[in-house]
Design a protein that fits this description.
Strands 1, 2, 3, 4, 5, 6, 7 and 8 form an eight-stranded mixed β-sheet that branches. The protein is of the alpha+beta class and 202 residues long. Strand 2, helix 2 and strand 3 form a beta-alpha-beta unit. The longest helix has 16 residues. The termini are far apart. The protein has a single domain, classed as Double Stranded RNA Binding Domain, CATH 3.30.160.670. The protein is globular. Helices cover 19% and strands 29% of the residues. The protein is built from three helices and eight strands, in the order H-E-E-H-E-E-E-E-E-H-E.
C-alpha cells in the first residue's frame, strides 16, 4: 500500500477554497457522543481515511479532506501527532461517500467512498402548460463525510458524526475541495454539538 502523503500537502488547496465556502448550500449534520457524562478532553490525533480502494491512498481528494479535518480538530483543541502518529491519544477515521442524484430520481455512487447506497430522490418537476425554457434539470452531487474519534489505547469511540451536502453538478459546491472545507467546518461547529440531533448549518 502506498504511503499516505503528509496532510500538509493538501492544506494549501483547502485554504484556497475556504473563501468560497459561503457560496455552498446548507449542510445537514448529526453528531453522537456522551460528553455530558464523560467530557471530551482534546489530545493528539492521527487521521486515517477508510480507503475503499488502495489506489485512493494517495489521492488529492483524501489529502484535502484530511487537511480540512485537521484544521477543524485543531480549532476545537486537538493537536496533530506529527512526530509519531502511532502514539497519538486518538485515532480519527473518516469515510467519504459521493453519489450522483439524477433529475429522474436515481442515485449512483461515484469516484470516492464505499458507495453502494441506493435510494430515490424527488426530481421536483412541476406541472405547467407551454414551452419549458428552463432546460434539462441538472444532476446533483451528494457528498457525505462520516467521522469517528476513538481512543487509541482501548478503541472506545468518544465522538462520531456525519455531515452531508447536495449541490448541482458542475457548480463550485460540487467540487471535492470546497465540499471538504464546508463539511468539516459544519461537522465541528459548536463541538461536540447536541448528541442525536440533526441540524442544518448554513
Amino acid at each position: 500500500m502506498a504511503a499516505f502523503p503528509s496532510i500538509a500537502t493538501g492544506a494549501l488547496a483547502a485554504l484556497l477554497l475556504t473563501g468560497c465556502a459561503a457560496m455552498t448550500p446548507p449542510v445537514d449534520v448529526t453528531r453522537f457522543h456522551n460528553a455530558e457524562v464523560a467530557p471530551i478532553i482534546p489530545g493528539s490525533v492521527h487521521i486515517q481515511p477508510n480507503f475503499p480502494d488502495q489506489d485512493d491512498s494517495s489521492s488529492i481528494e483524501y489529502m484535502t479532506y484530511s487537511a480540512a479535518l485537521l484544521r477543524e480538530l485543531q480549532r476545537v483543541g486537538f493537536t496533530e501527532a506529527r512526530d509519531n502518529p502511532d502514539n497519538s491519544e486518538y485515532v480519527v477515521r473518516y469515510t467519504i461517500d459521493r453519489a450522483v442524484l439524477t433529475a429522474g430520481g436515481t442515485r449512483s455512487p461515484v469516484s470516492v467512498g464505499v458507495g453502494g447506497s441506493t435510494g430515490s430522490y424527488g426530481s421536483g418537476v412541476g406541472l405547467g402548460i407551454g414551452i419549458d425554457l428552463s432546460g434539462t434539470p441538472k444532476d446533483r452531487i451528494a457528498t457525505e463525510l462520516s467521522v469517528r474519534i476513538a481512543h487509541r489505547a482501548n478503541g472506545n469511540v468518544i465522538w462520531e458524526g456525519r455531515a452531508s451536502i447536495e449541490a448541482k453538478q458542475g457548480s463550485p459546491a460540487s467540487q471535492p475541495g470546497l465540499a471538504a472545507s464546508k463539511l468539516a467546518e459544519a461537522l465541528f461547529k459548536d463541538f461536540p454539538g447536541v448528541s442525536g440531533t440533526t441540524i442544518t448549518v448554513p
